[in-house]
Amino acid sequence: xxxxxxxxxxxxxxxxxxxxxxxxxxxxxxxxxxxxxxxxxxxxxxxxxxxxxxxxxxxxxxxxxxxxxxxxxxxxxxxxxxxxxxxxxxxxxxxxxxxxxxxxxxxxxxxxxxxxxxxxxxxxxxxxxxxxxxxxxxxxxxxxxxxxxxxxxxxxxxxxxxxxxxxxxxxxxxxxxxxxxxxxxxxxxxxxxxxxxxxxxxxxxxxxxxxxx
Amino acid sequence: xxxxxxxxxxxxxxxxxxxxxxxxxxxxxxxxxxxxxxxxxxxxxxxxxxxxxxxxxxxxxxxxxxxxxxxxxxxxxxxxxxxxxxxxxxxxxxxxxxxxxxxxxxxxxxxxxxxxxxxxxxxxxxxxxxxxxxxxxxxxxxxxxxxxxxxxxxxxxxxxxxxxxxxxxxxxxxxxxxxxxxxxxxxxxxxxxxxxxxxxxxxxxxxxxxxxxxxxxxxxxxxxxxxxxxxxxxxxxxxxxxxxxxxxxxxxxxxxxxxxxxxxxxxxxxxxxxxxxxxxxxxxxxxxxxxxxxxxxxxxxxxxxxxxxxxxxxxxxxxxxxxxxxxxxxxxxxxxxxxxxxxxxxxxxxxxxxxxxxxxxxxxxxxxxxxxxxxxxxxxxxxxxxxxxxxxxxxxxxxxxxxxxxxxxxxxxxxxxxxxxxxxxxxxxxxxxxxxxxxxxxxxxxxxxxxxxxxxxxxxxxxxxxxxxxxxxxxxxxxxxxxxxxxxxxxxxxxxxxxxxxxxxxxxxxxxxxxxxxxxxxxxxxxxxxxxxxxxxxxxxxxxxxxxxxxxxxxxxxxxxxxxxxxxxxxxxxxxxxxxxxxxxxxxxxxxxxxxxxxxxxxxxxxxxxxxxxxxxxxxxxxxxxxxxxxxxxxxxxxxxxxxxxxxxxxxxxxxxxxxxxxxxxxx
Lengths: 213, 668
Known about the structure:
The structure holds 2 protein chains of 2 kinds. By secondary structure, chain A is mainly alpha-helical. Chain A is built from 7 helices and no strands. In chain A, about 75% of the residues lie in helices and about 0% in strands. Among the domains of chain B are: about 335-515 and about 525-550, no CATH class; about 620-665, no CATH class. At the A-B interface, helix 5 of A face helix 25 of B.
């Protein structure tokens, strides 16, 4: 089972690169949805069976795989934009940075003092790499919807780390994290609407006009 | 087990919780039930107030101290809450004043007239009360900071209740900035304490040595952080505008209690130390003296009733600081009477000021309620239409001036006696104390002048403006809290012996024991019985005079305008104004107050054209000191502001860079 989990994590890492390398919004949203579904399956791979686990898996898959992508898709359609036209940093440089960060993550996690049973997993490097990817998307993209995607990837990275920490995650913590994510997406949806109404564009760099002189 | 339900700690903790949740019914109610849910919230607040007062009193009477420890998973050690004499003493004004203010709010800020703002107002009022109680119950740095911030933020929302007015927003923002600057001081204070003790828990009293170095830095941090909250000069800048612009019952609670939380923090911090050097006491005494004199001088120059009262809070905080200073100097010179009298005077003045300042703010609220303005120069003759308010405001005025037979006299007497004991000692302390004594007397005299002005112009004479003629007395829900506070003032004034035991217990708990077990008794250094007798005699004299005056006016004939002075056609505009009454005193203090006078320049010839004269006293410390300095800093640091670009991505980049640096640092 461990090897299967590691293979799924490799898939997660590949999806990171898809999110970094594409400018098409719908494609990026779908990629992150797939990433969410994979993350939903992962707990079942490493922990023994319990109904609590089933509940978590189902809820994560529904929220991350369907609800959030659906909300984002609607925002994209209502804003009538299809792609990120001019990011702060081009796609190739971002991909290169992503590769460097991923390598860095693997190097760094090797030096972490970990419990022996976690030593051979890919969880920690995958977590850090995904976290970095989220940050990269957040810093290099202009469109508000990409900001949400970056935020989702960031959260996925944190989630992977969380898989290690708790043998059996308390329901409250898990529910709290999911609720947080959902509310975050909602708020971002409202912000996106407001931005597009105010500036007739989804370019977050226009928000500088709100700054106090 | 059954007894545990009525233990002081149970009462106090449940009162705190009830207060915290008291606003929920009002917050969540549908609009048509707004008035009823407000009533429910008020009842909950009253319940909390009565329970909390009972708990605090029981704790003081039964000499019951407890400490609770809760081990939680936060990385800063366990959470500790406790009740000791000092906490219990400060809980008295917290629960007493907020209970009165909550009942007052029911009529003053009724849900039918303020349907939008009543919900947050009621909610945050309860939260603020619980926050204040939390601060005095906290025994470790983190629960203290939690409660402190809850209190500060709730107070911000209360101050900006009428946020549609620009001056209210400005006052709220100024308050927010200063309160967080104070919190910054606490962020310095608690790590210093951690360095000294190695724990985030508060040390027990008198366990630390007040040597130069760390303890002195800690003392200065405490003076800054708690001085900002207490509103000591020159950190008082937030106070006048915040108190003037908040709803009156909130001003009462803020001035009566929140300022005292600053005092509490200072006394609590000082109680950790023994062997304090002379300069600690002298600096506290100096700050107190400056606040007292300049605060009351500013008050004399104000034309806004509530702003004036706010400056008087600065003055009274100054008096309390002077008491603390006397106690500190007493520790240095080893004088038991000085310590006891200074600390007891300060603590008693904490409660007294809470009582009479809350009474005055609620009275000012009644005046605003009846006339629609707080401009002193538009009022006049209010006393005829609002006789009960006028009487109660008069009680508060006499109390704040420190005149017998009311409570202000008793606490100031204790501080005076402490000062007199200090003069008999020798060394540098005696010099400081000898200089402070006339300062305290000056403060008292100026306060009398100021309240003669307020009372004379607002309540006596005839109305100065047709738009703001007082028309109705406040309802019982507004009068009852004022009556309760007034009775409190009178009771402490007449029978100070009744609280001497509790006061002495609370004071001794933070003072070192010089002469051994038991120590000096408060009744041994203060003639409490004489006070009672003199107060009763004075009261009898007042009743007699009143009776004689009644007979006099019933036998006289005819009515003339007040202060008619035989003029043929006296008009209300010929009365003294607030400016004219204060002109001489303002002139004497113009070096500090920087009054602005707008004189007419066309008063020439035999028949000059009509002209206007007006003057006002601005907040000089804010306008002439802080704002220019901050503007200069703003200019100098324009380079750093480029970091705040307003680009979202750049902010995330900062986090990313920090993260990478931290991860990279783990390699080395």
